[in-house]
Each structure stands twice: as structure tokens, then as C-alpha cells.
Known about the structure:
Elements: H1 4-13, H2 15-41, E1 47-51, E2 54-58, H3 61-64, H4 66-81, H5 84-89, H6 93-99, H7 101-119, H8 121-126, H9 129-156, H10 158-161, H11 164-174, H12 176-187, H13 190-216, H14 221-242, E3 248-250, E4 254-256, H15 259-262, H16 264-279, H17 282-291, H18 295-311, H19 318-322, H20 327-349, H21 353-360, H22 362-370, H23 375-379, H24 383-387, H25 390-417
Antiparallel strand pairs: 1-2, 3-4
Helix pairs in contact: 1-2, 2-13, 2-14, 2-25, 4-11, 6-9, 7-9, 7-20, 9-18, 11-12, 12-16, 13-14, 14-25, 16-22, 17-18, 17-20, 18-20
Amino acid sequence: MQSWSSIVADVRQWWWIYLSMPFIAGGIGWFTKLIAIEMMFRPLEFVGVRLGRIPLGWQGMLPRQAEKMAGIAYDMISTNLLQPQELFDRLDADQLIKEVEAPMRRAVDDVVRSMAIDYYPGLWEAMPEVTRRAVIGLIQSETPKYAVAAIEDAKRDIVRLFDLRAMVVSNLTADKALLNRMMRDIAGAQMTTIPKIGFWFGLLIGVGQAIMWALFREPWLMPVFGFVNGWVTDFIGLQMLFRPHEPERYFGIFTWHGLFAKNRHELIPQYAHLIAAELLTPDKIVDAILKGPAADRVFELAAKYVDRAADAAPSLAKPLVTLTVGTDRWRELKATAAERVFAHAEVTTQQAHAYTMQAMDIENTVIERMGELSPAQFENLLRPAVKEDEPTAIAVGAVLGGIVGELQILLIERITLGHWAWPLGLMLH
């Protein structure tokens, strides 16, 4: 420990170095927070090398936990926000069919003509075009009735036909950028506040660092303080992002409310819009129904109503399919018709996207339900997948702080003594 006179003389001579220490420490606190935040989201894919099972590199905490985060998102959506049955009950089958009337008529025209050519080329080609149009028109006029019945049947059994979990998990796992956007929208501007907090905490640590340097002037102090600075400010910054859930007063001086909970009402509309506009969109819902795990059940339902429609075909259309066929051929024809109708379903339903979004009203529903979540439930939208990687992010911040501290002592030694110190501040003098 230096004498008081030595301390005074040193501070007078190198006052600007002492003055810079708190600000450099504040910079460490700010910089390591930026790194910690970006480590949550970037990179989307693993960058580095793998030595056997040991990864030497990094992948953003959220992208690396994409499947887990997708499961969390599903649990939150299905438990607290939306139920498939509720959404589909909002659809009016008659109105839905009216929305797709034009593409449905085109689909019927295409299916009837292709079936007639494949199964009854001679008979179909021998018909005048006006007769063909009349046959197609009669089938088109009957189709809405069966389509409405099929939709009502599907609505009653939607839980078996639509796997919401598979849809959410597959979309978020495949599109890690979407997952990142969801989480960034939840965290919002709060993320930009954390580096500022890191700066002020680093500034306070830097004051202590300057005092310790004046007292002992040991080279190892700088990397150690840098390490502690990065560790402490990262830990405190992450805690302040999530805790406390309710405003609390500390030391009788200031009140703090976890940023995530404090600003939830500003974040909820952004999150709800993203869910409605990018995750639970009509096209993705239709894709999940037609191509998801329950697609076979959906096809069976469609085939059932195609079968009924064919058996109840208007008398004018029946000559095409009954005069010259046997039972097996008739069954084959109906099965083929079901496949072709099913193949048109995705294009046909696109016309109803605007109506579907309006009827389901996903965005407003999510806003309303998220407003009812407890602070702990709201925190669980982001914290679980991040929490297990928090020690790694904090450790990285500490190491970066130590490196900056070492660079700091190297520069100070160069300025004050005219030579460079050994790495890690091990040179004692």
C-alpha cells in the first residue's frame, strides 16, 4: 500500500488517468451488456467448429433453443391465449363458402372436365359444349351445400383435424428469424436500456477501481476489476430486465420495476400483431390442416362429402358416371375425384384469407388475453430458454471485461513507466 504523500503525488501527476478509469469501466459495463444481448439472438446458426461432441463456437441462445422456445410459445398460446376450437367456431360456413365461390366454381369446372376426359372421353367429347356446361353448372350449384356441410363437420372435430402445436413448433423451428422477431418484440426497447444500466454500474465500479489503484498500484487490479465489472454488470443487468415483477424500493433511494413487466402493455400489441400477421396466418393454418400430421383425416372428411355429392349427382350428370360403369369403377372414380378436389383446396381457400383473419380476430384476442397474464406468466414468454444460458453470457461478459482491464493496465504502464507490462498484469514492481 502506498503512503498518503505518494498517493497525492501520483494523482496530481496522472489525474487524467484516474479520471478516465470510471468512464472506461462504464464503457466495459455498456459494451459487455451489448454483447450479452446480441448473444441471445445471434447468430441464427452455429458458428465455430466441433471437436467431437464439444462445440467451440456460439449460436444465439434463442435460435439454439428454437424447439424449446417454440414449445413454450405453443404452451402460452394454447393455455392462456387461443384455442383452435374457439377460433374455428368464429367462422360462418355459409359466409366462408360465399368468399370462395369464384375459385370453387373454377375448381369444379376443372375437376369435372378432367374426370370426364379420363373416364368417359368418348361420351364427353360427343356432347355439345352447351350440354357440358349444363352438367358442370348443375354440379357447381350443388357443391356449396356439401362444402358447407363439410366445414360444419370439420369445425365440430377441429381438434383432431388441426394440430396447433405441430404448426407452431414447425414454423418457429424452421424460421429462427421469426422466433427472434417474436422475442425481440416482447423484449422491445427494454433491451436498449440494459447497456445504459451497465454503464452506470460500471462507472461506480470504476470509482472503486481508481481508489484501489491509488492505494496499491498493482497491475493485476485492472484485469481483476474488469473481470468483476463484466460479471457483476451482466448479472445485475439481466436481473433488472426481468425482476422484480412489481415495483420495489431499494435502500430508500430509488424504485425499480423489472423492465419486462413494467412495459408489458406497450409490448403486448406488438407481440399480438406478429402472431396474427406471421405465425397464425390463414395460409399457414390452411397449410397445417392440409399438410400437417392430421392431413389424412382431413382428406377422409373431404372424400366423405365428395362421395355423398357424387351419389346424389343431378340426373343430367348421372349418365356420365352410371350408365357404363361397374361398382369398382364407380368407387375408383369417386376416390380420384376426392383427390383432385383436395388438390384444389389450398388455392381455393386463398380467396377467404381476409374474411378468415377478420372472423378469427386473432390479434385482438391475443391482446385481450395477454393483458390478463400474471407477471410470472408474462416473464415465461422469454426467460426459460434464456435462463440456462445466462451463466455463459455473464461469463463471456466477465472475460471481455478482464481483457479490456488488461489492455488498460498495459496502456497505463506504457504511459507512466515507459514500457509494456506482461500479459494479465503479472509484472510486479
